[in-house]
Amino acid sequence: MAAANYGSCQDEDDERPTIQPRPPISLSEIEGEQPHRIAVASGLLCLFVAALVFFASLHHSPLPLGIGQVLNMQAAMESRQTIVPDPNAYPRRTFITKGGRNVTLPVLGFPSVALAQYPSLKDQPKANEAVRHAVEDLHLSYFDVAPEYGDGVAQSRLGPALKPYRQHVFLAAKTMYRDAAGAQADLDNTLRALETDHLDLYQFHSISTERDVEQILGEGGAMETFQQAKREGKIRAIGFSAHSETMGVRLIESGLVDTCMFPINFAAYHYGGVGQKVLDAAIANNVGVIALKAGARGRLTQQNGEAVEVPDAFQHIPEWKRQEMIQYPVVTSPRHHTWYEPEDEPEELNRLILWSLNQPGVTAVLPPGSLGLLDGIADMLRGKSEVPPIEEEDVQHLWDRYRRMEIVPIFHNKTEQGTKVST
To answer: Taking the complete model, does pTM exceed 0.85, yes or no?
Structure first.
């Protein structure tokens, strides 16, 4: 199969060359002849402006109206150079293989849920800077978002911020609507908010019950919308996120999905008993896995978290989810505004991330949705061609640490509540 570049997401042959870190790539390196065309156009504009100025000076007349706009156009063309993320800045792994594709992803994504902390339009410059830093400084090229993050806020902030880089990144989004009509409306709204004509991956969000799966796969279910959107080119791949291992395996074994997001977290795996069945099913069915909540220390409680006030109605979240938030009250971290307690000591956080990335079947991780924790993880992985192994002493350290702390795992398989609380 011939190799084809897909922004910073790549369809590649099975045998790809060894990845070598390299300096930032400018737009001029990507777009070939375009810089030459810009230079020619700029030169012509320069000659035109010079002629106008000369004519005006000869006749002692003011410059024609609109010359300011012309000068601005020239300046914009001369300064046009956008830094794009180096696609080889991080180790890459195979993610999507169905349909003859071989799409790879960098092992670290950007948690766009963090942008939900910017609810006002006045906060857009802050979101712009967060995304600029992620792309230009950290060279991240995988972004994940959902309408549920801030009830539409995160995707509304991400769209304008990501627009200069859109063609160079892999963009994934989700929907909590289980019916075809609801999913279609949600998809249309997400495309508008993200200012794009397609998503590289669209996912069913937060699958946790048998009813979720049956409604999605049944007549008039959201799968119909997903498949139609894929045929139309509005989405490139179909995936899901789940907190129930049983339901995650069911969707994987349906043969209808390309990818899966699931909590692959040290405490949830060892103390909650969840994760391995999903990984086994994903490997057997060639489904790529994104590790959720990899950096979670444990579950928040009413005692150590801040209660989330549930409104009478949401704009972007279905009513069933609102009712669930009432039945299973959500609390957030007072410090990080996440739905769980992240490990915020840098060395400990990096151990958790490495543990998740070293589990067979995992393609990439989404770090905690707290921007202050992102750089340390990026520094650990950037510039490497392979994910560093996790040493036995580090695994033993994690065992000892969480046994001593009496951690409550963020997810477990003992009751239905073990699949709830966090989206």
So the answer is: no
